[in-house]
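Readers of this paper often ask what the protein records in our data store actually look like. Nothing more is needed to write down the fold, since each code stands for a local backbone conformation. Below, we set out a record of this kind in full and without editing:
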Amino acid sequence: MMQSVADLVVKVDAARRRLTLQFGMSTDGAAYRRAMSGWLESSPEAVGYDWLYDLRRYGGSVHHDDVTAFAATYEQLAQGRDEGARSVFVSPDSGFRLWVQACALRFPRRIFAVVETLAEAERELAKGRQRPG
């Protein structure tokens, strides 16, 4: 399943148990919230999938409040099914790690990583599930 909201593309790959989010130059909080709600409604099983965030072209403005709003809805649906699933962010921004650390607090059962290339992301995702922390 593939969905596009503004310039944020969401792909759900059930065979690989992966959700891929490709952020564009102008992805903003409203687009993020719509896209995240969209895949929750159409593919709720993806709460337990690994997530790959491709932010190599990102230049928009998704704020912590946007993530917090999504996290509340997500938590009601996840109910522990995300234990040890990975969220890997691909970004050339060296300061992005700090933002991800703050957001990770909203998803305590997921494993978070920030890398610079898709190849590094694939290696991180290949590690499979493990317990957070």
About this structure: The chain has one domain: 2-126. The helical segments are 29-42, 64-78, 96-104, 118-126.
